[in-house]
Request: fold
Amino acid sequence: MLSQVPRSRMYVAAAVAAVVLVSVAVVLIVRNPSGPANAGSDSTVAAAPSSTATPSEKESESSESEESEESEPGKPSGDNRSVGLKAEATSAPGVTARLARIDSVQATASLPGEIGGPALAITVKVKNQTGKKLDLALGVVNAYYGPERTPAVSVASDGEVPFPASVADGESAKGVYVFQIPEEARPVRVELDLGNGADVVVFKGRPQR
Reply:
């Protein structure tokens, strides 16, 4: 019996020591927030991408969609510089343009792709006040009609007179462009692009026939 007493005391001492060691380990883990567990948590949050598009991404997607619509072949450009049919528009510093006349005519088609019948002969006048000669060789006039903005077919063989190659400073130049447009078509839209970085100007309204 006497030999068993020291052995039981040893068991008790060992159990107490184990409890103390576990307690110390717990205290150390609690006091060290930068330990392996917390480090693993931080890396998971940083690596998780957001599935929601940021405002900049949404704006980029929206602008790309708008650009694709405006650049669609056969469609007129936007209305940023739209004026009435009788108004004067500025396409570049010192360069103004207006529709001097819009005449109803009966066009006669003689070239492939042209369509004869009711048409509009549109006289476009460009004034140069830039201080130097203005190049008009790249000038383009397009027309559209109706609520759907249907592209009007040019009848170049019947009365069309393109812009001259250039116009001197302080002078004006005219061009006459004929487009097949049904008599009942309303409204009408005329676009002028002089090229060389000038803005495209838009004239729109209901012409008097």
Remarks:
- Residues 1-5, 33-77 have pLDDT under 50 and may be disordered.
- The first helix runs from residue 4 to 31.
- Residues 69 and 87 are 27 Å apart (CA to CA).
- DSSP finds three helices and twelve strands in the chain.
